[in-house]
Write a structure and sequence with these properties.
Blueprint lengths: L7 H24 L6 H18 L11 H21 L3 H7 L2 H13 L1 H10 L2 H15 L2 H9 L1 H23 L12 H22 L19 H32 L9 H11 L1
Helix pairs in contact: 1-2, 1-4, 2-3, 3-9, 3-11, 7-9, 7-10, 8-9, 10-11
């Protein structure tokens, strides 16, 4: 706690994102009370808090000393926070939360620009999302690259940003928030999630069963919990193994049940909402 300082810039940025979402959510709820639920808002705010917990809380002070803490950061940034943020369907609340003039003069033309639309379709393709997440996980855990992040504040920030961005891309085909359009049949998503566990399992098994310290900086780091560097590495591997398995299997089971369950007719609010969106623009 003595080494921790309150991250003012990060906190203000995340607070602004939460404020804009809440502002847009209230505006949407006034017109369409059941379109975006309070649970979705809670999910978004929880995702934002998970980012702060990973990067701004006292947890961030220990990432240079304990690999298990560093792994906790990675899990929060890539597996927990992005999923919660996307479950909050953030696009519409944020668009309605920022000033209307800014949307009409800047965001609207930008989002309608054909290169941006093409980039969006490419970046959210399931193959690209899977590759981006896999390359990010494996690439940053290569010892030389991992050590670069430990010894350089700039590269450390790039590492954190890449984990969060890769996490958002990875969860996009699974959650499919508005305005996402399904690119693959829904039954393929459990396969997508299962394949994503394989590189994580391989990495976590290597860290768990390796009999030497993979990242040399942790050999000379302070041991705040009085555990050896090898034991700390084992904890990190087990944490990744168990967490990723449960986090990826849970939505796979839910999607499988939904796919096999009988189709229930639900009221479609999207057409009326689209009409109001066009009128607002």
């Amino acid at each position: 706690m003595e080494a921790w300082s309150f991250p003012i810039t990060l906190t203000l940025f995340l607070a602004l994102a939460s404020f804009l979402y809440a502002r847009g959510w209230l505006r949407l709820r006034a017109a369409f009370p059941h379109f975006i639920s309070a649970g979705q808002m809670a999910a978004f705010i929880s995702g934002i808090f998970s980012v702060w917990l990973a990067l701004g809380s006292p947890l961030a002070v220990l990432d240079d000393e304990l690999l298990s803490v560093h792994m906790t950061q990675h899990l929060l940034l890539m597996a927990v926070a992005p999923a919660l943020i996307l479950l909050g369907a953030p696009a519409l609340p944020l668009l309605h939360g920022v000033p209307k003039r800014f949307v009409q003069s800047v965001l609207g033309p930008l989002l309608r620009w054909s290169p941006v639309r093409w980039a969006g379709r490419t970046l959210t393709h399931p193959v690209f999302c899977w590759l981006a997440a896999t390359i990010t996980i494996i690439g940053w855990h290569v010892p030389a690259v991992f050590e670069l992040g430990l010894h350089s504040d700039s590269w450390h920030e790039i590492q954190h940003a890449s984990f969060l961005l890769a996490g958002l891309l990875f969860w996009w085909p699974v959650i499919q928030p508005w305005p996402s359009v399904s690119r693959w049949p829904r039954w393929s998503i459990p396969v997508y999630l299962f394949l994503a566990t394989l590189p994580c399992d391989a990495l976590s098994a290597f860290l768990t069963f390796c009999d030497r310290v993979v990242y040399q900086s942790y050999l000379f780091a302070p041991r705040p919990l009085h555990i050896s560097a090898v034991q700390d590495q084992e904890w990190a591997g087990v944490l990744m193994w168990v967490s990723i398995t449960f986090i990826y299997v849970a939505p796979a089971v839910v999607i499988t049940v939904q796919t096999l369950a009988p189709v229930r007719i639900q009221p479609d609010l999207k057409p009326s909402f689209e009409a109001s969106k066009i009128e607002a623009a």
